[in-house]
Amino acid sequence: MKSPARLFAGAAALCASLAYPAEIDRSGGPYVPSPSTVVEAMLKHANVGPQDFVIDLGSGDGRIVLTAVTRFKAGGGIGVDIDEELVDRANASAKKQGVDDRVRFIRQDVREADLSRATVLTLYLLPGMMSVLRTKLLAELRPGTRIVSHDFVFEQWKPDRSVTIETQEKYDMTGIWTSDVHLWIVPAPVQGAWRGRWSGRQGGEFQLDIRQGFQFFDAQFARNGRAVEVNDGQVSGAKVSFTVPGENGRRERYSATVGRDQMNGEVRDGETVVARWSAARVP
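Given the sequence above, the corresponding structure tokens read:
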């Protein structure tokens, strides 16, 4: 992956060469449109389709949302940008392309945007704004929402997947030959204590104390007066999984779907389901 400092320098140089009204807050970065090859890679990486509603923060001329709806058949989308001229241009493009009934662009600070409808969120913002937005995204986006970013990443929250693509168009603008496209799946919040029980086997109850780090977690799993450490916990959207030693000494795989304060899933020994389990969050 390319150095963030080098990417920032390229964006800053471009910003310095452009004249913007002084009243526009460009703390998210200058208006640098993502090349069409990058736009397509972002939408492919997020697996955008008819069931999706795409929100683009820092939408510029609207190309990401417009491509999502026209090429990838997304159900709809919203673009948010601080520059009124760009917002007007994007809305005019939506009307010209005949999708203004499904797409709209609004002038707003991205830090104040309503994200409640998003199933896919797209970003091309500088690292400082990515850091500012991270807490908002984790708090407001539903588990399973896909976030896809052009080049820049969140501090500490590592992408689930990344790809690098070559693009001549970007070299012409920034002097960099390639773009990185990063994908995150918003994880359910599972930090804390959970009290669980099995069905289909004896053994009563257990307790799971989770220490979450975004899409990964460590935990302590306690049953029958004995506790073991879990160090391979994963959260992908509303799905959790981890392994613990079973009563026979073999490692058993626990998986579940997380609701607000409940988990429900199964225990597998290899390919065999040996029990069902559920857990409730301890207040």
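Residues 127-140 form the longest helix (14 residues). Try to locate this feature in the token string yourself.
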